[in-house]
Amino acid sequence: MMKTLFLHPPSFDGFDGGAGSRYQARREIRSFWYPTWLAQPAALVEGSRLIDAPPAGISLDAVLKAARGHELCVMHTSTPSFASDVKVAAALKAAVPGIRIGFVGAKVAVQPAESLAQAAPVDFVARNEFDFTIKEVAEGRDLAAIDGISWRNAAGAIVHNPDRAMLEDMDSLPFVTEVYKRDLRIEDYFIGYLMHPYVSLYTGRGCKSRCTFCLWPQTVGGHRYRVRSPGHVAEEIRLAKSYFPQVREFFFDDDTFTDNLPRAEAIARELGRMGVVWSCNAKANVPRETLKVLRDNGLRLLLVGYESGNQQILHNIKKGMRIEVAKQFTKDCHELGIKIHGTFILGLPGETRETIEETIRFATEINPHTIQVSLAAPYPGTFLYDQAVKNGWLDAAHAELVDEHGIQIAPLHYPHLSHTEIFDNVETFYKRFYFRAPKIASIVGEMVRSPQMMKRRLREGVEFFQFLRERHKAA
Which domain range does residue 31 map to? Predict the structure, then answer.
C-alpha cells in the first residue's frame, strides 16, 4: 500500500469546501462540515493520513512538511477552490519529488478532461464515487487498469478509463469515525444550528429528487438512495459515543434522510435506546406520525431546504414541494418541539423582486428557529448550470461562484433582475427575519437560559456583522 495523504487543502481563510456543504464558500458565521467524502476512502487505505487544513488552521508550509515521505496525495477540490488547489498541487510536487497527485470531488467528476488540462501537476482525477477507486490507486495498481479515473499517461495524453460501477452494498464501507478519531479534532467543527461539539456522517448516498441546483446527486451520488442498514448505523454511533464522549449531537448528512420513512424510524428507535441527541436533513413533507416517532427517540432538529416561498419557482427547479404541505409540516414540527434550520436560495430561475418579497414573507410566517440564505449557484454538472449557460444568465466573470476572499457572489442575472439586486437581498432577508421583536426575544431567552449559548451567540453575532461588512466590500 502506498503511503497516502488525503488532503482538504488550505485556500481562502475560513473556506468550507468539504463535501458536506451544499455550497463551497465562506459562511455568515464560521462553520465547517466534516470531510466525510475524504474520510471514507482514508478508512479503506491502511496507514493513510487525513489533513483537513481549513478548520484546523493548517498552513501550506505545514502541509508541505507533513507530506514528506508520502507517495500519493488525494486532494478534494471544488469549482471555487480549483485554481488555489492546483497551486497547492504544484507546491507539493516541488516539495515532495515523485509524489503522485489525484483530485476528487464534483468539479473533476463532471469536468475530468478540462480539469486535467488546467492542472499540470495532477496525475489523475477520480470520477463519481471514488472510495474503491482510490483504494486501488493506493494499492499501486497500474492506472490503466483502474475503473473510474481519468489520467495523464507517460506521453502526457489524457486517458479516460471506463466508469466504475456504483456502490450498492453500503455496509461494506468502513466507519469514518475511525478516521475522525485518528486524524481530526472534533472541536474544530462548528455549525451554527448544531450543538457543539457535533459529529456528522452519512447513512446512505444519493437522492431520488431532481432539484436542478443540487450538486451531489447530479455529480457524484446519483439519484438512487443507497443506504446502510439500521444496525450498521447504530454500531457506528455506539463506536463514536465511546470515542467522543464530549459530543452533544450527531448529524446525518444524507441529502434526504427521510426519503425512506420506515428506515428512518428504525434508525431513530436504535438511537433512542442509546439516548443520543441527533439531527438530520429532511424534506418539508414528513408526516406528523413519523415526526413524533423521530422526536420521541432523540431527534432535536431538522435541516430543511425550503428554497423559495413561490410555488412557480419550486416547479421551475423541480423541487417537488407544495407550499401548503411545507406549511403544515412546519406547524407540526413547532407543535412537537422539533427545531428547524430552514435554508432559502435567492436568484433561482423565475426570481423577481416580487418573488423575493414573497419568500421573505413566507420565511417569517413559518418562522424556523434559524435560517440560511444562499445565492443560486450554478455548479458545472447540474441542470441549473446548463440552463444558465444556454439562456445567458451566467457570464464568465462570475463562473467561479466566489470572490477573491471566498465569499459567495450572485453569479446569475436576468433581464429584469441584476446581480447586485440579488446579492443585496441576502442581507435584506437576514435583517427582516432576525430583526423582529419575537425572534429577538426568542434568541435572548435562549441566551439567558444557557451561559454557553450566550457566549456562542455573541461570537456568532460578531462574525455575522463582520461578514456583512465584507459583503459590502465585495459589492
Answer: 4-160
The span from the CA of 242 to the CA of 19, in Å, is 25
Residue for cell digits 407544495? 322
Contact between 462 and 30 under an 8 Å Cβ cutoff? The reply is no
414 and 303 housed in the same domain:
yes
How many CB atoms lie under 10 A from the CB of residue 196? 16
Distance CA(32)–CA(406), nearest Å, equals 14
Q: What is the C-alpha separation between 401 and 74, in angstroms, rounded?
A: 24
Give the residues of the chain that fall short of pLDDT 50: none
Which of 255, 237, 243, 266 lies closest to 343, judged by CA?
255
Scored b (16 or more CB within 10 A) or e, 137-157 reads bbeeeebeebebbbbbeeeee
Inter-CA distances, 172 with 41, 168, 180, 445, Å: 12, 9, 18, 46
> Which stretch of DSSP H or E encloses residue 181?
helix 177-183
Residue 448 lies in a domain: no
- Widest pairwise Cα distance in the chain: 67
Number of domains in the chain: 2
144 and 241 both lie in a single domain = no
Q: Name the CA radius of gyration of the chain, rounded.
A: 22
Q: What pLDDT is recorded for position 198?
A: 97
Do 386 and 252 reside in the same domain of the chain?
A: yes
The three three-digit cell numbers of residue 25, written as one number: 464558500
Angle at 80 between CA 79 and CA 85, to 5 degrees: 85
CA distance 234 to 222: 25
Strand 278-282 and strand 249-252: the pairing is parallel
Query: Which grid cell sits at 385?
Result: 448550470
Complete DSSP assignment for 135-183: HHHHTT--GGG-TTEEEE-TTS-EEEPPPPPPP--GGGSPPTHHHHHHH
User: CATH no. for residue 222?
Assistant: 3.20.20.70
Closest CA to 346 of 315, 376, 378: 376
pLDDT of residue 20: 59
112 with 209, same domain: the answer is: no
pLDDT of residue 27: 74
Q: Which grid cell is 253?
A: 448528512
φ/ψ of 360, rounded to 5, equals: -60, -45
pLDDT computed for residue 14 by the predictor:
80
